[in-house]
Each structure stands twice: as structure tokens, then as C-alpha cells.
Specification:
The protein is built from 12 helices and 10 strands. It has helices at residues 44-53, 55-69, 83-92, 95-111, 205-210, 223-240, 253-257, 260-280, 302-317, 321-325, 337-369, 389-413, and strands spanning 73-77, 113-120, 146-152, 157-159, 173-177, 187-191, 195-199, 244-250, 290-296, 377-381.
């Protein structure tokens, strides 16, 4: 029979080992700080407060939607010179329409989602799909038959799941729970055809259920980094105003503090010392009873720490440094052509990811409203890449040189 020691190592759970002498495994273990804690679940008011009071939070919610909406795009029908295309684009390229997309995405970045209701005069209830023949039901034609509501937040319009089951990411119905909409009051169910939905940061289904059926706010992983950076800035700013402070040494200080009258006397003495230093730039002290020392703070390494915190904030924002703080190496043109082309490609990808499905459905509705049911059309996003003045001049120069070479060659041949 094998003799075993006092402790059977096989029976120990090593994940619960603690060392009281050095704190290993307890709450005093430094490695416990590496554990990933649960993501915060911010309330609506907390998100609003962060957006209103912290400029970095406003920046990451607003910047990319503005850049995405700036170049915009247009509906193209393969038949050249089509009147239907012109009439549809008259509305689809309006500033009011693209601003709706821009603002809707900004609120989706803030809340995790946002909704606009499409009011289509098709003779059907809100909980039914939109009829493709609604143009024939009204005497007026085209875009006047389609209107858009204001932008609703996830607490007003949200995915409707019967008995809690269904596709929370792409539901068939939405529930409206507000005092009233632009046309109908109340609490009712609306079909997805009539909803223009904007999405926040992708997340898992369980989190979406906690977020009332919407994606995550861009601020959820961002606020912690921002507060760490801004708190450092505030602390440095506060210490700059008091980079020197007075250390007043008094004999028998603690015994004197036991007397209330002595405490009052001490406060008055310190007040006089500060006033004298401020007005006369000097101090008068009792040689036998007092000693005063002016101590200066050490600011070495502060700049490097602040820059590290700023880099963390920029990384968490998902923006580049020029985008986040509008800082270019030596003017906007110093940002290389390849970087600007990469940014333009990124903007195009975001437009398609966030707005592609929605804008195609809006195009389809506009065409149906004009009585056009063909399939030979598509939406084309405009390219946000633009040459600088210097680059345009270089292109013009090269084209002129090439044309001159061609002309010289032709004369030589003749």
C-alpha cells in the first residue's frame, strides 16, 4: 500500500490556492487586475450626459456619419437620360434626406440604435408590408406619397419579438411605445418595411436583448479611456496653478491643536502667511517658533504620460489621429495620397455596411412611387477621395506634357 503524505495534492483545486503571506490569489494579488470585468450598462441619461459634457464622446458619435454623408451618392438606371431617374434623385439627393441618414447614424452611435418611420400612402395598416402598387392608389405621384418621421431612440421604437423569441437583429416587426408619432398616436406594431433602422456597434444577441433589441453604443468601451485621460489633464491643470506650496513647520503642533483657540490661531497664521507671500513675495516668520519651506512640484515625465493616455483614447475611438484631433503633420496636404485613398475606401465600406440595405429600399420605394417597377437600377456611392490643389496641378502638367509629346510626334510623322 502506497504511503501518502499529510496532504493529498491530487485532491487540491489549484485555482483556489491562497497565500496569506504574500497575497497570491487574494484580492491583494496584483494579477487580479488583469481579470476582465463586465462591460458597464449605461443608462440613457448617462449616455446623454457623456455626449453633452465630454468632447471625445461627441467626436466619435458625430464625425464618421458626417464624413459618410458628405460625398453621398445617386440612383442610376441603366437606360440613359431616364426621366424617372432624374425625378427619383430629386428627392434622394436632397440635403434634408441625407441629413436624416447622418443624424440617424449619430444617434445610433450614441444609443446603439435609432429608428425612422416611413409613412407610405399605400392603403394598408402599419403592421402590413408596403404594397408595391401604392402609386396607383393616389392621384398625386412620386415622392409626395412617402414621408419620414423624426428620429426615434430605442426607448420609443424597438424590435417586437412575440413571446421573447425571434431574430432580434432583423425582426419582422417593431413596437412603437410613445405618446404619439407624426401621424398616428399610441402603442402599436409596425412592419419592418416601414422602418428605417440605424445600427450601432455590432455585439452578441444577449447584449442586444439587454439593449432593447439594438446594437451597442460606441461609448460603452470608450468612456473609461476618456475619463482616465481627462482626469489626468484636469489633475495636471490643477497642479500647474499651485506648482509651489508652503510647508509651515511649527513647534508642538499636535499638542497645540488640542486647544480650539489654538486651531483658530493656526488658521489665521497660515492665512496671513499666504497673503504675505502673494502680495509681498516674501514671508516673515518667528525665528524661534517657526520654520517655512516652499516646495516645488516635479513635472518630469508628465508629457509622456499624457501622450500615452491620448494614444489610448485615439485607439479606442476607432478614428485616426488626424481625424480625432484634426492634427496633420504639415497641413492637410501632408497626409499622403495613399492614406487618403485608404480613408476613402474605409468610408465607402462603412456606407455600404451601415446604409447599403436601407438606401436600396428607399430607392425602391421612390421608384414604386413613380410607377417604375424595373430592376435595372442601382445606388452608387460617390467617391470621397479628392485630389489636393497641388496634385491637380501636377496631373494637369503631366497631361499637357503628354499632349505636347503626341503633337510633336504627329508633326514628325507628317
Amino acid at each position: 500500500m502506497e504511503k501518502k503524505g499529510k496532504y493529498n495534492i491530487d485532491s487540491l483545486n489549484t485555482s483556489t490556492l491562497y497565500s496569506l503571506s504574500n497575497g497570491l490569489g487574494t484580492e491583494y494579488d496584483p494579477l487580479r487586475s488583469l481579470e476582465i470585468s463586465g462591460a458597464p450598462q449605461y443608462s440613457r441619461q448617462e449616455l446623454i450626459n457623456a455626449y453633452r459634457s465630454l468632447w471625445p464622446c461627441r467626436k466619435i458619435c458625430d464625425y464618421l456619419p458626417r464624413v459618410m454623408a458628405q460625398p453621398w451618392g445617386r440612383l442610376n438606371i441603366k437606360r440613359e437620360g431616364d426621366v424617372i431617374e432624374s425625378r427619383a434623385n430629386k428627392y434622394l439627393t436632397k440635403g434634408k434626406f441625407k441629413n436624416l441618414y447622418c443624424r440617424g447614424q449619430q444617434l445610433a452611435n450614441l444609443y446603439g440604435g435609432a429608428v425612422v418611420i416611413r409613412y407610405v400612402q399605400d392603403g394598408r395598416d402599419f403592421n402590413e408590408p408596403i404594397s408595391r402598387h401604392f402609386a396607383s392608389l393616389q392621384k398625386q405621384s412620386g415622392i409626395e406619397q412617402i414621408q419620414y418621421s423624426r428620429i426615434y431612440n430605442p426607448w420609443e421604437v424597438y424590435p417586437y419579438l412575440q413571446n421573447g423569441y425571434g431574430d432580434v437583429e432583423n425582426p419582422d416587426y417593431y413596437q412603437v411605445s410613445i405618446a404619439g408619432t407624426d401621424s398616428k398616436p399610441g402603442n402599436y406594431i409596425i412592419h419592418k418595411d416601414r422602418v428605417l433602422r440605424f445600427r450601432g456597434a455590432p455585439t452578441d444577441y444577449e447584449t442586444m436583448r439587454l439593449n432593447r433589441g439594438f446594437e451597442d453604443s460606441l461609448l460603452t468601451p470608450f468612456i473609461t479611456s476618456v475619463l482616465r485621460y481627462l482626469n489626468a489633464i484636469n489633475y495636471v491643470g490643477a497642479t500647474v496653478t499651485s506648482f509651489e506650496f508652503i510647508v509651515h513647520k511649527l513647534q508642538n503642533l499636535f499638542s497645540e491643536l488640542e486647544n480650539e483657540e489654538s486651531q483658530i490661531h493656526l488658521k489665521e497664521r497660515l492665512k496671513i502667511a499666504h497673503q504675505t507671500l502673494s502680495s509681498l513675495r516674501g514671508l516673515v516668520v518667528d525665528k524661534e517658533e517657526e520654520e517655512v519651506e516652499i516646495v516645488s512640484r516635479n513635472y518630469s515625465g508628465v508629457k509622456e504620460i499624457i501622450e500615452l493616455l491620448l494614444n489610448e483614447v485615439i485607439a479606442a475611438s476607432g478614428l485616426t489621429k488626424p481625424q480625432f484631433i484634426q492634427e496633420h503633420p504639415s497641413g492637410l496636404s501632408a497626409t499622403g495620397e495613399s492614406e487618403r485613398m485608404a480613408q476613402a475606401d474605409n468610408i465607402r465600406a462603412l456606407q455600404e455596411e451601415k446604409w447599403g440595405e436601407q438606401i436600396e429600399w428607399d430607392c425602391q420605394l421612390q421608384l414604386w412611387g413613380l410607377g417604375y417597377y424595373g430592376e435595372d437600377w442601382g445606388w452608387e456611392w460617390a467617391n470621397s477621395f479628392q485630389l489636393t490643389s497641388l496634385e491637380e496641378a501636377e496631373v494637369t502638367l503631366k497631361m499637357a506634357q503628354a499632349q505636347q509629346i503626341v503633337q510633336s510626334t504627329q508633326k514628325g510623322i507628317i
